[in-house]
Amino acid sequence: MLSGIRPTGRMHLGQYHGVLKNWVRLQHEYDCMFFVADWHALTTHYENPQVIEESIWEMVIDWLAAGVNPGSATLFIQSHVPEHAELHLLLSMITPLSWVERVPSYKDLVAKSKDRDLATYGFLGYPVLQSADILIYQAGKVPVGADQVPHVEMTREIARRFNHIYGKTPGFQEMAEEAIKKLGRRNAKMYRELRRDYLQHGKRDSLEKAQALILEQQNVSLGDRDRLLGYLEGGGKVILPEPEALLTNVSIMPGLDGKKMSKSYNNTITLREDPDSVEKKIRTMTTDPARVKRNDPGDPDKCPVFALHDIYSDEETKSWVREGCTTAGIGCIDCKKPLIEKVLAEQQPMRERAVQYEENPDLVKSIVAEGCERARTIARATLEEVRSAMGLDYR
Ligand code: TRP
Ligand code: SF4
């Protein structure tokens, strides 16, 4: 499992609920690699890269504070694993221009970011770089929000195209057909049917059944096993497996102004923000605009404060708010009080966990250095396979 975040500022509570909490859960279930996507940040922030440098270490501390455990997950920095860049280059050779131009976020973002010139070669390659990030670890699962799903989809297309072009070794098909015969009549028939269901009708469960069928065979050689698995997905060997997006549960956290919490709206509460500042921000945050005076009743469904209660408060508190707000029984300050307490209580253990790292930056650097080492070992191995598949292993 692999995921990355762009270092463009401090992590905020929206990212905690939307991303980091998932990471913390997933790190016990999968071999997880989490990285700081500094090159991706550079595609949009090339004119003011200081923010990247400032954010990198704070961001790693935020992850550790949130409970990401360097004993279970591998943490690293993208640019410290230069193999990503080489794979990006190699993948760019086979990526049709129409694929990158068609990514939904692309034209949108270029048009929206008028203050930045994003009509660059680097920014066009953003999803190809992301594909390299994923494929270099042969990641099976990529936990992302809905906005990133098209990028994972493109990664799958690039992997498929790569395997199609470079996965064919001479005589592969004949050898695969020989391997099928060795399965015995019944299994060979089943294998062929499942393969056809997948290749002609795109039935994913047939692919899975066929893979299981191969894996449960006792007396198939390793070479034949790989051939049979590769043949299932087309004509060749699978060099770069296709990843799957793991859609993280999208709790859209409202920001202080009611819009989605996001750095670009400047409406965030950061993960380890000072308690006084948190209190002040919530105390002054937007409420139902219809509630001008204390005696005006309000509508919680039109109030961003209530949207926060929805995330933080129990049913009892929420019905107390509903009742009190609609009858003008409570004031907005009363309403915000339990919320402030909940947010502060959530942040408290994070602040505590962060202290040892804030006081000892070398500790953070050594965690990342170790993660980079491990990441590079995997990345190098994939890159060797890729070079050799592309015929670039001449000496
Ligand atoms: N593009 C992602 C984002 O903006 C960050 C990212 C870069 C990423 N490389 C990745 C996420 C690889 C998952 C996997 O959020
Ligand atoms: Fe919003 Fe609470 Fe005020 Fe109602 S009482 S308007 S829910 S802050």
Q: What does this protein structure show overall?
A:
The chain is mainly alpha-helical and 395 residues long. It has 3 domains: 2-165 and 241-252 and 360-389, Rossmann fold, CATH 3.40.50.620; 169-232, no CATH class; 272-359, Tyrosyl-Transfer RNA Synthetase, CATH 1.10.240. It contains 18 helices and 5 strands. The chain has helices spanning 13-26, 38-45, 50-66, 83-94, 97-102, 104-112, 121-124, 126-135, 149-166, 172-181, 185-201, 204-215, 222-232, 275-283, 304-312, 315-326, 332-359, 361-389, and strands spanning 2-5, 32-36, 73-77, 141-144, 244-247. The strands form 2 sheets. A 3-stranded parallel sheet has the order 1-2-3. Strands 4-5 form a two-stranded parallel sheet. α15 (304-312) packs across α17 (332-359). The protein starts with a strand and ends in a 6-residue tail after the last helix. The model has no long low-confidence stretch (mean pLDDT 93). Residues 2-4, 6, 37, 40, 130, 133-134, 142, 144, 148 line the site of tryptophan. Residues 287-288, 291, 298, 300, 303, 305-306, 321, 325, 330, 332, 335-336 line the site of iron/sulfur cluster (SF4).
Sum this structure up briefly.
The chain has 395 residues and is mainly alpha-helical.
Give me the secondary-structure topology.
Layout: E1 2-5, H1 13-26, E2 32-36, H2 38-45, H3 50-66, E3 73-77, H4 83-94, H5 97-102, H6 104-112, H7 121-124, H8 126-135, E4 141-144, H9 149-166, H10 172-181, H11 185-201, H12 204-215, H13 222-232, E5 244-247, H14 275-283, H15 304-312, H16 315-326, H17 332-359, H18 361-389
Parallel strand pairs: 1-2, 2-3, 4-5
Helix pairs in contact: 3-17, 4-8, 4-18, 8-9, 10-13, 11-12, 12-13, 14-17, 15-17, 17-18
The site of tryptophan has 12 residues, from strand 1, helix 8 and strand 4.
